[in-house]
């Protein structure tokens, strides 16, 4: 059974700092997603990664995928308050399984 | 440009009622999923479907059933609602892995309260 582990679960950052969220998964997968969720809202798709070495960037967020290590990272550069949210990774084969989420708080 | 629509944002039902949660997508996606989200437990997969009339159990199917009579619609059914089914329910759809343009989208969620 596919398992997805995400860490850290909670992350408090100062504005302007960098940090990385990690997502490990247990079996080979077709694709990996990163989502953002704001309180009381649904999930917003950020990135989808398909192949080994894939890297995608949008603003201050950059996601990468290492299929051999079964690891994806979401790197935050020069954090700003607007990035405060919960971030999830998800791995899809036939079904789609989620990590537990990382609650990010960016403080001024 | 709405892609995945859930029939209700908020729903209050009584214990023992039969409850239908509807999800419709307009992207011609083959795969559809139902999750529930609870504080501290993350998103847990209830059921998924990869084709019309096909369904697969997820991690927590007990107390639920699903229906996929048409490609665009995936319904979650609570046969006899109980208070422990109070939760946020999220529907998602995605393209299968063979396609070159992978994507997956979520509906806005249905917050169900069973009293």
Biggest interface found = A-B, 23 and 22 residues
SSE arrangement of chain B, N to C: EEEEEEEEEEE
Spatial gap, N to C terminus of chain A = 41 Å
Q: Say how many strands of chain A there are.
A: 11
- Overall residue-averaged pLDDT value of chain A: 92
Alpha-beta classification of chain B? mainly beta
Count the strands of chain B? 11
Low-confidence stretches of chain A: none
N-to-C SSE string of chain A, H for helix and E for strand: EEEEEEEEEEE
Proportion of residues in extended strands of chain B: over 45%
Number of continuous helical runs of chain B: 0
Shape of chain B: globular
Oligomer: heterodimer
The total count of helices of chain A amounts to 0
Report the C-alpha radius of gyration of chain A, rounded.
13 Å
Q: Report the biggest beta sheet of chain B as strand number plus sense, adding barrel if it closes.
A: 7 strands, mixed
Provide the helix percentage of chain A.
under 10%
Please state roughly what percent of the residues of chain A sit in beta strands, choosing from under 5%, 5-15%, 15-25%, 25-35%, 35-45% or over 45%: over 45%
Biggest sheet statistics of chain A: 6 strands, mixed
Low-confidence stretches of chain B are: none
Please tell me how large the radius of gyration of chain B is: 14 Å
């Amino acid at each position: 059974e596919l398992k997805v582990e995400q860490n850290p679960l909670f992350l408090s950052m100062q504005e302007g700092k960098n940090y990385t969220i990690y997502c490990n998964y247990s079996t080979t997968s077709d694709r990996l997603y990163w989502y953002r969720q704001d309180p009381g809202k649904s999930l917003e798709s950020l990135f989808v990664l398909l192949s080994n070495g894939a890297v995608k960037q949008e603003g201050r967020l950059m996601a990468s995928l290492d299929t051999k290590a079964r690891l994806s990272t979401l790197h935050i550069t020069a954090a700003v308050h607007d990035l405060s949210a919960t971030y999830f990774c998800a791995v899809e084969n036939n079904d789609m399984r989620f990590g537990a989420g990382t609650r990010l708080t960016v403080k001024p | 440009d709405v892609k995945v629509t859930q029939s209700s944002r908020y729903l209050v039902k009584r214990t023992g009622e039969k409850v239908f949660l509807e999800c419709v997508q307009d992207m011609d996606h083959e795969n559809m999923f139902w999750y529930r989200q609870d504080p501290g437990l993350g998103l847990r997969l209830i059921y998924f479907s990869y084709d019309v009339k096909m369904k697969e159990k997820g991690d927590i199917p007990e107390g639920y059933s699903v229906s996929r009579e048409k490609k665009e619609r995936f319904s979650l059914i609570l046969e006899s609602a109980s208070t422990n089914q109070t939760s946020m329910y999220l529907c998602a759809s995605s393209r299968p892995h063979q396609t070159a343009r992978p994507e997956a989208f979520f509906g806005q969620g249905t917050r169900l309260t069973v009293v």
